[in-house]
Design brief:
Elements (H helix, E strand, L loop, with lengths): L1 H31 L2 H10 E6 L6 E2 L5 E13 L9 H8 L3 H14 L5 E7 L1 H10 L6 E11 L5 H4 L2 E3 L2 H6 L8 E3 L2 H5 L1 H5 L3 E7 L5 E4 L15 E3 L3 H10 L5 E7 L4 E8 L12 H10 L8 H4 L9 H10 L14 E4 L2 E4 L9 H7 L2 H12 L7 H13 L22 H8 L23 H12 L3 E3 L4 E4 L12 E3 L7 H13 L17 E7 L7 E8 L6 E7 L9 H14 L5 H8 L3 H11 L1
Parallel strand pairs: 2-10
Antiparallel strand pairs: 1-8, 2-3, 3-4, 3-5, 6-7, 8-9, 10-16, 11-12, 11-20, 13-14, 15-17, 18-19, 19-20
Helix pairs in contact: 10-20, 13-15, 14-19
């Protein structure tokens, strides 16, 4: 009897265990493992992403710069594929059978159930042909999206471009799926979240022929796409276009800033390219061609190129000297063909001697600023040149030099202001002096400054000691205000009382008597203050540099022009800056002879011919 009871209990336990296993398995299939549910739903439901219209981009005067046009992407859901006429299909969309197989396998690798991009950006003609026969090709459907269009061929680097995301981005940022687009550079990248908007989704019921039969549950689970915010930039389209015209056949950059706001009026980098080249299916091919171009049209010189500032840096040397009280307005220094120390000499051109500060700026005397620099570094109040140099550098970096300015431009570089550690490493601690670093006094040596930083430095002088962080955005439709950091005044460590002395010298550079270094930049009825610069270039002709702001009182524009291999500052950079200022303040150019002089200049081809003749 006991044996029978034991068998009974044993059988009951087995039945219970089997029941538990079935329950667990059913739970796993119905709740945990959703693949069957997905498979079933994908047979009758189609989730179509609703892509929002990307935000429009305007210039500061509300002139449209970037807008959208419709594009058609062919999507695929591998799970829904059935046998179809591949020859007819390939003929319609103009691809080979090899490409067809490749793209199908690629889609299966990504996901068997989720839709993915099969063919991007079909033409409206191809779309019309395919739409008539789409019901024959189960597993395929067309999704509408937008592509960027440009009203003008300008500001390519500032505006940036949009490109397709890759798998790495989709892993880092779940918002994006393969086939999506995002900003790659410029404003498109910096303000991607604002411009992209928010995707929506529509769920449709489809029949066995893959034809839409209606909304799933009357659209209860649909979500609408939210269009991206429109952006008003700080750029002046007319000035930008004019700047790019002046810089044709030249390498370099023009950056102009409104001193009272820090708004970037123009950001020209040359050579440039037509922004439309990086849109649509031709983008990859064009990008590779631009990348191979030896003139580097993709390189944004305005924020990424680091140049010695040349004699434009003498403005900083003077201000630091005034602040440290080793220099005064009436301080005199003589110049006998340059600054002599031992067997070395920092050469200078012919000009009156001796000079006071304002006239030293007017004539750009190298000897004068070598003396000023040494008086700063070797100030008896400091225990060593090392200490004096640190004080000097602290003043210089307060102008936004040597560090990233914190603009809304993604690829901004910091430039370089050397440190004591650099010289200690190179010469050894205690084995270098003001003479070792003397070239810094006139903007040479290890100094590396971007055109944007140089324009910001000029804006700081125009403001008599402060600047607003330069930025490209004036207004975003989805926000009340731009980032607060662009509204904060950032002061240098130079007292405002010293700036008028230097500014008087800058005025004489243009409006002074014969011998002033940039009289060619003079504009009728406008007092322009500026400074020429000639940066030594070990790889060829010197670089032509000019900084300026105007008018002298209540300035409306501060500008930096940098023309590679352009020789001395007054030759090409100064007249270019002068034309830009006249264009912005007067709207028209009165000095057509000067405009033609710049427009007819072809430094790129001239230099190429010179090299061939060598």
């Amino acid at each position: 009897m006991d044996i029978f009871k034991q068998r009974k209990y044993f059988i009951q336990i087995i039945i219970i265990l089997i029941s538990i296993i079935y329950i667990i398995r059913l739970f796993a299939l119905q709740v945990v493992d959703t693949s069957y549910k997905i498979s079933a739903s994908n047979n009758v439901l189609r989730h179509i992403t609703q892509y929002p219209a990307r935000g429009l981009v305007y210039d500061r005067n509300e002139e449209l710069l970037v807008y959208n046009q419709a594009a058609y992407d062919l999507m695929i859901v591998p799970r829904q594929l059935e046998a179809f006429d591949t020859t007819d299909f390939c003929n319609i969309i103009n691809i080979s059978k090899q490409q067809l197989i490749k793209e199908i396998n690629k889609a299966k690798k990504y996901s068997y159930f989720k839709p993915s991009l099969f063919l991007k950006q079909m033409s409206s003609v191809t779309y019309a042909k395919l739409q008539e026969k789409l019901y024959k090709y189960k597993g395929f459907f067309v999704q509408t999206r937008t592509l960027r269009k440009y009203t003008q061929k300008i500001a390519a680097h500032a505006l940036g471009y949009v490109g397709e995301v890759d798998e790495e981005i989709t892993k880092k940022k779940p918002y994006y799926k393969l086939g999506d687009y995002m900003g790659i550079s410029g404003i498109e990248k910096s303000y991607e979240k604002e411009l992209r908007g928010k995707k929506g989704v529509q769920i449709y019921l489809v029949d066995v022929h893959n034809r839409i039969k209606g909304n799933y549950k009357k659209g209860k689970y649909d979500t609408n796409a939210v269009a991206g915010a429109n952006i008003t930039t700080t750029l002046d389209a007319n000035l930008q276009e004019y700047g790019e015209k002046l810089m044709q056949n030249k390498k370099g950059s023009i950056v102009a800033i409104e001193p009272s706001t820090g708004e970037i009026l123009t950001m020209v980098t040359s050579p440039s390219y037509n922004p439309a080249l990086l849109v649509g299916r031709i983008r990859t091919k064009n990008y590779l061609n631009l990348l191979k171009d030896t003139l580097k049209p993709l390189f944004n010189r305005a924020v990424m190129a680091k140049y010695p500032p040349g004699s434009t840096f003498k403005i900083i040397t003077a201000l630091v000297g005034l602040q440290e009280k080793v220099l005064y307005k009436n301080t005199l220094y003589s110049c006998h063909g340059g600054y002599h120390y031992g067997r070395q000499i920092v050469g200078c051109h012919n000009h009156p001697s001796p000079l006071d500060l304002t006239h030293a700026i007017q004539y750009s005397c190298n000897a004068y600023f070598c003396n000023v620099y040494r008086s700063i570094i070797d100030n008896p109040e400091f225990t060593s040149a090392d200490e004096g140099f640190k004080v000097w550098r602290d003043y210089v970096t307060s102008f936004g030099l040597g560090n990233k300015l914190g603009t809304d431009f993604a690829n901004e570089l910091s430039g370089n202001i050397p440190t004591t550690k650099y010289y200690d490493k190179y010469y050894g601690h205690g084995h270098w002096s003001s003479l070792t670093t003397l070239s810094l006094s006139i903007g040479q040596g290890e100094l590396g400054i971007t055109p944007l930083q140089l324009a910001n430095m000029t804006s700081t002088v125009a403001n008599r000691g402060f600047y607003y962080t330069p930025h490209l955005i004036k207004k975003i439709s989805s926000k009340k205000n731009i980032d607060e950091k662009f509204l904060v005044q950032r002061y240098t460590k130079i007292d405002s009382s010293y700036f008028p002395i230097v500014i008087d010298g800058m005025e004489k550079v243009i409006n002074g008597e014969a011998g002033s270094t940039a009289r060619i930049a003079k504009i009728k009825d406008i007092i322009v203050c500026g400074k020429t610069g000639t940066a030594q270039n070990p790889h060829g002709d010197n670089h032509s540099i000019f900084i300026a702001f105007a008018p002298k009182d209540n300035p409306k524009i501060a500008i930096a022009v940098f023309i590679e291999n352009g020789g001395y500052g007054a030759r090409w950079a100064a007249p270019t800056a002068s034309l830009m200022i006249e264009k912005y303040l007067k709207k028209n150019i009165s000095r057509k002879w000067l405009e033609n002089y710049i427009l007819n200049c072809d430094l790129i081809n001239e230099q190429t011919q010179d090299k061939h003749m060598e």
